[in-house]
Amino acid sequence: MALSRRTFSALAGSAALGLALGGSGGPGAFSAYAGGGARTGPAPGPPSADGERHSIGYDRHSLLVDGRRLVVWSGEMHPFRLPSPSLWRDVLQKMRAHGYNAVSIYVAWNYHSPAPGVYDFSGVRDLGQFLRMAAETGLYVILRPGPYINAEVDGGGFPGWLTATRGTARTDDPTYLAHADEWLTQVNRIVRRHLYTQGTGTVLLYQIENEYDAHAREATGRNYMSHLYRKVRADGIDVPLFHNDKGRNGYWIPGTFDTGGEKGGWLYGFDGYPSPSQTPPDWGHYGPGGLRGGATASPATPGFVPEFGGGWFDPWGGAEFDGKGYAESRRTRDAAYERRFYLTNLANGLTLHNVYMTFGGTSWGWLPAPVVYTSYDYGAAIDEGRNVTDKIAPMHQLGHLLQRVPDFARLDRAADVTAAGLKVYHLTNQDTGAHVYVVRNDGTEAVTTDLPTDAGVLPITVPGKDARLLATGLSLGRRALKYSTAQPMLCLTAGRQDIAVFTGRRGDMAELVLDSPSEPFVERLDPEAGWAYDRGELHVNAPLGQGGLTRVLVQKGDSDTPLLLLFADDATAVRLFPYDTPSGTLLAYGPALLRHAELRGSEVHLTGDITERATLEVWAPRGIDTLVWNGQRLSTRITRSGSLMTTDMVPDVPEVRLPELGGWRMRTENPEAGPNFDDSSWKRADRTSSFSTTAVPDGRPVLFADDYGFHYGDVWYRGTLTGTDGVEEVSLAYSTGTQGLLMAWLDGEPLGTHRMPVPDKGATVRQGSWTATAAFPVAERLRSPGRHVLSVLVRRMQHDQDGKALDTHKAARGLTAVTFKGADPEVSWRIQGEGPADPVRGPLNNGGLYGEREGWHLPGFRDRDWERVTFPRAARYQGVTWYRTTFRLSVPADVDASIGLTLDDDPYRAYRAQIFLNGWNLGQYINNVGPQHTFVLPNGILRTRGGNTLALAVLSEFTTLSGPGSARLTLLGRAAGGVPVSPVVSP
Question: Which residue is catalytic, options 211, 262, 320, 617?
Answer without folding.
Answer: 211
